[in-house]
Write a structure and sequence with these properties.
Bound molecules: S-adenosylmethionine
CATH class of the largest domain: Alpha Beta
Number of helices: 12
Helix content: 25-40%
Distance between the termini: 61 Å
Number of domains: 2
Largest sheet: 7 strands, mixed
Order of helices and strands: HEHEHEHEHEHEHHEEEHHHH
Strand order of the largest sheet: 4-3-2-5-6-9-7
Strand content: 15-25%
Shape: elongated
Number of strands: 9
Structural class: alpha/beta
CATH architecture of the largest domain: 3-Layer(aba) Sandwich
Radius of gyration: 21 Å
Length: 272
Amino acid sequence: MENLKSLLSRHNLTLKKAFGQNFLSDNALLSEIVQKAGVTENDTVLEIGCGAGALTKELGLKAKKVVGYEIDTRLKPLLNEVLSDYKNVEIVFEDVMKQRLSDVEKKLGGEYIMVANLPYYITTPIVMRFIEEAKNIKAMVIMVQEEVAYRFASEKSTADYGAITVGINLRGSAEVILKVPREKFTPAPNVDSAVVKILIDKTKFSNVNFNAVRNVVRCAFSSRRKMLVNNLMNVFKLSRADAESVITLAGLDLTVRGENLSAEEYVALTEN
Ligand code: SAM
């Protein structure tokens, strides 16, 4: 089978750093990602950033339907060639960030899994957008920078734990499922990567005002080293007595910082 370098050169393609183009070509690794993602013949998959189609093909073999988004229209002839036998795969040559999520979900037609080797420059905006707004997503299985993967899956009261971790825990849970060394990519980036699986649980906190909770989370991490009481006073203009009373009513210690609270505790705090 033709290797990645020869495929790219036959199509006169040089990879663009600005689009986060670090491609995979190790078939065993790609197959492991799709297998760990748990994709079956009943699943619809959203892939963001199809590149030279290596992951897309693997997904096309396992899933019922694949919808891929690719910003770089130069890849069109290559992807048309590589995916010509895959009738269940549709590639949309658009910037996924500029699409309305409702339009993306309409194309998918029902519940779906996101499986992607994400362009690193938009990892956090993509994850936050799908976590906060997507209606039909069941899981996200995404390759990200290793340190970002550990941030997503971190426990409270650790250095990695941040507002995005709480955001993920409000809708589900994250687990690092595979480490991928930088040498597996063409070209090799400066950092190692990892695949993280975020399972979405729609029943979690079903009656919660998520926007209100997210405002409280943003407030608590606005000055990470400050105690929650000070951030509440600064951001929401509360008196010290009111800020302390909100914290105590939520069953928390007055000395806590944002990084010490679980998603459940943020919900309790917001309700108070
Ligand atoms: N899936 C391929 C693989 O695993 O080899 C390529 C992954 S590469 C890390 C990321 C891909 O995302 C690139 O092909 C890039 O052009 C594409 N991309 C970057 N920004 C995008 C955006 N906003 N919307 C859609 N695709 C994007």
